[in-house]
């Protein structure tokens, strides 16, 4: 949700949105590419509201408080460290990749997990949605290496399943069987590699994993690799 707008120095605003560095703004002012209330801007330190400014005659990108839903392809990494492989951020416009505060993923999907991924530059929202106390439901589709044992649904629903190295059991999770080796699993936590570890704990192995929902959000209308900005009313209160 856009965070309430207040007046900011023009150079600070444009550099925080990734348009230029604070030193590059002088060139942009000389080139008359920045308008304030439709009048050519001349000074880098003018205090402005976000909505008063245009760049190349276009309104600015959304202010701080952006939330993005992406259909993450397999093979991309939820990290800011590109030594780990191609980053999910590389799918976004380059200007968005230069924003400060940075866009970060809300939780992570493994490199080999596809599906619904949220990103934001709103630190408070990020903190709230990744806190262990926040129990939003997420549904995953999994393909398993072996047919499931009959009692796995009960074990997952019981709230007693312990994962290796953890001190508390997983909260109850809802398993839906599609066929012998295809299931959906609804969980309300976000422990490290949780879905893969839950199936490992019952002697199976996840061959492919895709997140199809996060709360009420789905991937409807989003091709693999595509993303869209969330509307204020779609963001979790
Ligand atoms: N659980 C996993 O094991 N991996 C993910 O990427 C998400 C949930």
Please outline the helices and strands:
Elements: E1 8-9, H1 10-16, H2 25-30, E2 34-36, E3 39-40, E4 47-48, E5 53-55, E6 58-59, E7 67-72, H3 94-97, E8 104-105, E9 113-120, H4 123-130, E10 138-144, H5 152-158, E11 174-179, E12 182-187, H6 194-201, E13 206-214, E14 217-218, E15 227-229
Parallel strand pairs: 9-13
Antiparallel strand pairs: 1-4, 2-3, 2-5, 5-6, 7-9, 7-15, 8-9, 10-12, 10-13, 11-12, 13-14
Uracil (URA) is lined by residues 109-110, 113, 193-196, 209.
The number of domains is: 3
H and E string: EHHEEEEEEHEEHEHEEHEEE
Bound molecules: uracil
CATH architecture of the largest domain: 2-Layer Sandwich
Number of helices: 6
CATH level-3 fold name of the largest domain: Alpha-Beta Plaits
Rg result: 22 Å
Uncertain segments are none
Largest sheet: 9 strands, mixed
Give the terminus-to-terminus CA distance: 10 Å
Instruction: Please state the structural category.
Output: alpha+beta
User: What is the name of the CATH class of the largest domain?
Assistant: Alpha Beta
CATH homologous superfamily (4th level) name of the largest domain: Pseudouridine synthase I, catalytic domain, N-terminal subdomain
Strand composition percent: 25-35%
What's the total number of strands?
Answer: 15
The shape, in one word, is elongated
Mean pLDDT: 95
Percent helix: 10-25%
């Amino acid at each position: 949700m856009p965070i309430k707008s207040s007046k900011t120095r023009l150079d600070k605003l444009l550099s925080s949105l990734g348009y230029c560095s604070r030193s590059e703004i002088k060139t942009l002012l000389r080139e008359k590419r920045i308008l304030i209330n439709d009048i050519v801007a001349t000074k880098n330190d003018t205090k402005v509201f976000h909505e008063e400014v245009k760049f190349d005659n276009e309104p600015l990108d959304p202010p701080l408080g952006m939330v993005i839903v992406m259909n993450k392809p397999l093979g991309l990494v939820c990290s800011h460290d590109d030594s780990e492989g191609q980053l999910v951020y590389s799918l976004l416009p380059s200007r968005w990749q230069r924003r400060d505060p940075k866009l970060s993923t809300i939780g992570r999907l493994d490199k080999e997990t596809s599906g619904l991924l949220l990103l934001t530059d709103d630190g408070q929202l990020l903190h709230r949605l990744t806190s262990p106390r926040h129990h939003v439901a997420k549904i995953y589709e999994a393909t398993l290496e072996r047919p499931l044992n009959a009692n796995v649904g009960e074990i997952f629903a019981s709230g007693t399943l312990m994962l290796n190295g953890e001190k508390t059991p997983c909260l109850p999770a809802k398993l839906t069987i599609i066929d012998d080796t295809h299931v959906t699993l609804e969980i309300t936590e976000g422990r490290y590699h949780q879905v893969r570890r839950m199936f490992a704990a019952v002697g199976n192995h996840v061959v492919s994993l895709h997140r199809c929902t996060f709360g009420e959000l789905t991937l409807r209308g989003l091709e693999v690799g595509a993303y869209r900005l969330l509307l204020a009313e779609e963001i979790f209160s």
